[in-house]
TrEMBL record:
InterPro entries: Pepsin-like_dom, PEPTIDASE_A1, Peptidase_aspartic_dom_sf. This is Peptidase A1 domain-containing protein. It comes from the Eukaryota. It comes from Auricularia subglabra (strain TFB-10046 / SS5). Residues 35-399 form the Peptidase A1 domain. CDD domains: pepsin_like.
Amino acid sequence: MRILSPTEQKRYPRAYLMSMCFGKQVGDHVNWQTVSDGESALKFKGLVDTGGHANIWMFSNTDAMELIGKDGSHKHISESPDDFDRFVRHKSKLQFARDDRLTSERVHYTGKETVELQPTTRVCGTYDQNDVLRIFLPHFTLGAVVGFDPSFLDAPFDGIIGLGRSHPGRSSLGTPVRTIAFFELLRHRLKVYVVKGILQQLLNQKCIQDEEFYVCCRWEPDSALGYGFISFGGWPVDRLDLPTWNRIPVMPNANVAMWMIRLESITVVVPGTAFSHSEPVNADVMLDTGAAGTTLPNDAAKSLLAAVHGISSGQGLQAGRLSDDVQVAFTFKIKHARWAGGQGQAPSQTIYGSAERFFVLPQLGPGRNEEPIYPLRSSKGQKYNVLGLNFFRTFFVGFVDTASEPMILLAAQF
């Protein structure tokens, strides 16, 4: 993964820098290290996606990923928006497997396509001019195209970092057990391993201490948080004091490796007034940083957008804009039997956040100061409802990936 240059940052305004942190075990503490801009750049840009069924790392030998047809023909995915959309939409169905018939260094998927990969090393590191790994780092900065969606983003990426959760038959973070650890591959020296997922790898290398990771996404740079970060193995207290977390257990499911929780309702509240618009959702929703916006059942999406327009009109603001005091409340139903209340009644958990952050997507770059973009859409025709990147801008989100009790942790970003 490589750091975006200033030119790239101007060209692709929605591809912003995030910091990916790996904790280094030192006694009972986690130390954090930083790579300065003057050090060797990392090789790839990546899409960080928490919603995938499997943990998928894909890199091409060129500037874009390629589809390899059954006849051996190659086609850049970026040549066709339909290919991009289809590939990202169905990527969770693809799994790694080694095809010994291929003489070149490729990974063959059990799906319909094969994707050619550039051999890499480790989870993170820097390379010399001969593409040899010289430094293994517990912390680095990457140019992550977070929130990929053809209708919202035009920035290319070289790979997908899929952070789906564990379930029986798969290992930590959803990686198929039989796969190639190609982050362990050196050019000219091929090693094949049976691995158990990115978190398990980091645990084995003593880079992290717990099976957990935290995500902070921001469109606006912050003096303490920058453009956001992903922290594996602990909350980086040097960036921000430990938030007060709301814990939402995830229902273990042998057939689903997604971070799925039950959303009971969404309520828009204007403090100091009698206004409160509550909309029932009553649907399972997937948390996914790889989705630029949120998709909800049709009636809920329409009603909430109408309420947002009504509030902004009543406050005399630009259409769709909201004042800082307007809040949005998410009520989640806890389905895990261990966390259920008496007489089998499942309790609920409600958390408040900024309505402006959730309902309005900032427009960045030249010529993007027209009408605001609303990242809330109807899920009609889609298989899943999704809480996407705008949800991650509204809350800090933590993921605890244990096979018996996977859990989501939420804290408001105000």
